[in-house]
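agent> Task received from the user: take the single chain below, predict its 3D structure, and emit C-alpha cells. No templates, no multimer pairing.
agent> Plan: (1) validate residues, (2) run structure prediction, (3) serialize to C-alpha cells, (4) report one or two observations.
agent> Step 1 OK, no nonstandard residues flagged.
tool_call: predict_structure(input=
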Amino acid sequence: MRTLTGAAATRLRGRRVPAVFGSGGVCLYCFSLVYTTGKGVRMSQPITGSCLCGEIRFEIAPPSGGFRYCHCSRCQKVTGAAHAANLFLPVSQFKWLSGESLAKRYNLPGAKRFAVSFCTQCGTRVPHKIAATENMLIPAGVLDAKPDIAPEYNIFWGSKAPWLVETAQMAKFEEYGK
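)
tool_result: status=success, residues=178
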C-alpha cells in the first residue's frame, strides 16, 4: 500500500488531482480507487491474479503504467484471439505468490522484446518481465479483480485481424447466446 503525503498527495499517477476525496472514492482523473487518511491519499489495495488451474498466483500494486490492446500478428498467435489485453507496470510493483516455477517462458527468436509466458499445468498466459526493461507485462484476463486503469488505446491497429468486428457492432448475451 502506497501512502502519498504533502505535495505528493495532490498528485496521483502523474496527474493533478484534488487533495481531498472525503472518506474515499474514485479519482476522477485516473479512475483509481482511493481513500484518505489523516496522513494523505492512499492507493487502492494490491490486485491478485492467477492462472486457470490456480497453481500460479501473483499480486500487482497499483498504479499500473499502461493498459493496451495489441493487435500485432504475434499477439494474435499467442492469444488465439483478435488482440491481447496487456497491463504494464514496474517490476518493483509485481510479486509472485505461488507457482513461479510452473511458468515457462518462450522468447521469439530474433525479436527484441516479444516473449510469452504460460502455466505448464493449464496453458494460461501469465505475467513476464519484458526483455531489456524493468517492466512486467500482465495479461489482463488473469487478474482476479478489475485493474486500476481502463484500456487506453489499440496498438498495431494496421495489423488487426481481417475478421475483426468491433464489439460495439455485435449483439450481446449474458451467456452462450442463440
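agent> Step 4: summary for the user.
Residues 83 and 124 are 15 Å apart (CA to CA).
agent> Done.
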